[in-house]
Design brief:
Order of helices and strands: EHEHH
Number of strands: 2
Number of helices: 3
Radius of gyration: 16 Å
Oligomer: single chain
Helix content: 40-55%
Largest sheet: 2 strands, parallel
Strand content: under 5%
Structural class: mainly alpha
Low-confidence stretches: none
Strand order of the largest sheet: 1-2
Distance between the termini: 37 Å
Mean pLDDT: 85
Length: 84
Amino acid sequence: MIHDRDSIFSRELDQKLKSDFELKVLRAPVRAPKANAYRERLVGTVRRQYLDFMIPLNERYLRMTLRSWVKHYNKGRPHSSLGP
């Protein structure tokens, strides 16, 4: 789970997420307003270009197919800076 340093995210909440859901809690860096923008862009890209076209059956399947999509996204698709 990634969240900023707002007061609504207490230490108790972080501990509960760790113990009950086995999530690793990451906090946004201090005084880094663009950090949230990068996360939101990544999540939006994954949702629009990956999850809109498939239905994950379980976590294992999601992780397996997401790995192959990340390889395609970073190496297989054309990048404007690299030419056609």
